[in-house]
Design brief:
Strand content: 15-25%
Number of strands: 6
CATH topology: Rossmann fold
CATH class: Alpha Beta
Order of helices and strands: EHHEHHEHEHEEH
Strand order of the largest sheet: 3-2-1-4-6-5
Distance between the termini: 10 Å
Number of helices: 7
Number of domains: 1
Structural class: alpha/beta
CATH architecture: 3-Layer(aba) Sandwich
Length: about 130
């Protein structure tokens, strides 16, 4: 399965032990991770601004960057999400032909599906994996 992880899922995995950390460390290993330079830049900026951490010094960031397929996404022709910044996630999913976008962002989750990519919360994604879907 081809999976885009929204920045908020990765930040939650770094910030606290719990569902998102389990998802990132154990659950997505068997799947193809998709990202883009804009999403990696957003992750790096959030780590620097909110946590005063240098992304390149973090093992999880480096491992994610090295493991994920980095696609070149094009801006969407028209705004889709209520939050314009979330369209970058959708554009990455389109470029990477993602099956699933995992996000904790209600603005994205309300879409349900976008151009063939299902939008799921981390909990819903884990439940889907547990069902073998």
């Amino acid at each position: 399965m081809r999976v885009v992880l929204d920045t908020n899922v990765l930040i939650a995995a770094i910030a606290a032990d719990g569902l998102c950390r389990d998802l990132v460390r154990r659950r997505v290993i068997a799947h193809d991770l998709i990202t883009s330079e804009p999403l990696l830049a957003e992750l790096s900026a959030v780590l620097t601004e909110k946590f005063r951490l240098e992304a390149n010094d973090m093992p999880l960031f480096s491992a994610y960057r090295n493991r994920a397929e980095i696609v070149v996404s094009k801006p969407l022709s028209e705004r889709v999400s209520r939050d314009r910044d979330d369209d970058v996630v959708l554009a990455t999913a389109i470029a990477g032909k993602a099956d699933v976008i995992v996000s904790g962002d209600a603005n994205l989750l309300t879409l349900g599906v976008h151009t063939g990519s299902r939008l799921l919360s981390p909990r819903s994604f884990i439940e889907m994996l547990d069902r073998g879907a």
